[in-house]
């Protein structure tokens, strides 16, 4: 019996991705009832856990910060595909979906993943240590991207309402790609050491022994299964989205909550991976995942939306409202004060988590 249990626990990360894709194929484009929605939710959670496992295998093979970069970019590329698909199929009713989802991703990563990682790491080790140079550069890039893409449309005057003109949207898309590309080159180039853990312990296996790096074949298999699992995560999130929208409407909540829920589902792999890294005192990896995901979410979504706007009907609302602008501003200020010392306690983590709670509460009660 023990052997059978070990076999199951060893094989489940290999089995879940194809199973989740099969469930996605069966449920795609169908109206699912309550029971099937619960089954899809369970499979979705399994796909998230499998994605985290395979992301860690790939990260162990390629090293940091490439591992965090691969997971952040893979999730975001598929998230962008989901947003564009929903906007094209949803028509004018989804005019603000990109803004709501991207802003939710920023708040969930910078306040949620970052705050939770700092809290978990400092609670276990007393003080969470990380590189202020790399983390500060990442947060500055996130702040610039968010301001160019989400704040400026509220104040421009070429078009009425919180939207860019065609020329402004093209500029924002190009600027987003340039900033994101410059950051990736910095993170993986001569200044790579700014994004490496301060305390570089050896990865260990489930029994606590030092784990040898996986072979190239194992890493390649995990990379393929990671992409498969992430496709399933985003696809199953879309399958669940009608049920989410109905629940939001029945509860009388603002439609922007749909973007929050979609971002939360898509960001689950990064959240779990970041918390596990924080538990091993590798806070820098957690911050790479948090800020890298926020950066990729803006830097890749805005250019994709700019291209997709050719086929979109109705306006493309990107500008944040006054409440969201204030929340973004205080998040950036608090984030800078958090990362400048290169160390943090539970207080800093708690402050970010309270800001996340404020964002969620005000999304429900605007």
Automatic annotation (TrEMBL):
Domain Sodium/calcium exchanger membrane region, which positions? Answer: 34-188, 222-363
Membrane topology designation: Multi-pass membrane protein
Mention any one GO cellular component term assigned to this protein in its UniProt record. Answer: plasma membrane
InterPro entries xrefs = Alkaline_pH_Ca-Antiporter, NaCa_Exmemb
Provide any one GO MF term from the record: potassium:proton antiporter activity
Domain of life assignment = Bacteria
Membrane as a keyword of this entry, yes or no, is yes
Entry-linked Pfam families: Na_Ca_ex
UniProtKB keywords:
Membrane, Transmembrane, Transmembrane helix
Transmembrane region(s):
35-54, 66-89, 101-122, 134-155, 167-185, 218-237, 257-275, 287-311, 317-340, 347-364
> What is this protein's name?
Ca(2+)/H(+) antiporter
């Amino acid at each position: 019996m023990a052997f059978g249990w070990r076999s199951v626990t060893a094989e489940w990360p290999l089995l879940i991705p194809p199973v989740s894709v099969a469930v996605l194929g069966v449920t795609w484009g169908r109206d699912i009832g309550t029971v099937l929605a619960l089954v899809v939710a369970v499979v979705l959670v399994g796909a998230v856990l499998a994605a985290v496992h395979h992301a860690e295998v790939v990260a162990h093979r390629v090293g940091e910060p490439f591992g965090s970069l691969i997971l952040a970019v893979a999730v975001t590329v598929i998230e962008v595909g989901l947003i564009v698909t929903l906007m094209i199929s949803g028509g004018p009713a989804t005019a603000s979906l990109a803004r709501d989802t991207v802003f939710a991703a920023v708040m969930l990563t910078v306040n949620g993943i970052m705050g939770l990682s700092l809290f978990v790491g400092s609670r276990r080790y007393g003080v969470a240590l990380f590189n202020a140079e790399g983390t500060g550069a990442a947060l500055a890039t996130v702040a610039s991207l968010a301001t160019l893409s989400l704040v400026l449309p509220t104040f421009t005057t070429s078009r009425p309402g919180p939207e860019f003109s065609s020329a402004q949207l093209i500029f924002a898309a190009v600027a987003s790609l340039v900033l994101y590309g410059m950051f990736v080159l910095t993170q993986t180039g001569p200044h790579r050491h700014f994004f490496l853990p301060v305390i570089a312990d050896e990865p260990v296996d489930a029994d606590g022994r030092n784990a040898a790096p996986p072979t190239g074949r194992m890493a390649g298999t995990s990379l393929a299964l990671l992409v498969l699992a992430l496709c399933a995560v985003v696809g199953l999130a879309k399958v669940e989205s009608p049920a989410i929208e109905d629940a939001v409407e029945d509860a009388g909540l603002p439609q922007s909550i749909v973007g929050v829920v979609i971002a939360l589902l898509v960001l689950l792999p990064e959240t779990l991976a970041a918390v596990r890294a924080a538990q091993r005192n590798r806070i820098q990896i957690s911050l790479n995942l948090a800020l890298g995901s926020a950066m990729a979410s803006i830097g890749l979504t805005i250019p994709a939306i700019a291209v997709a706007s050719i086929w979109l009907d109705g306006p493309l609302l990107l500008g944040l409202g006054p409440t969201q602008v204030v929340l973004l501003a205080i998040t950036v200020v608090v984030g800078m004060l958090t990362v400048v010392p290169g160390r943090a306690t539970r207080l800093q983590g708690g402050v970010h988590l309270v800001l996340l709670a404020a964002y969620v509460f005000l999304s429900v009660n605007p």
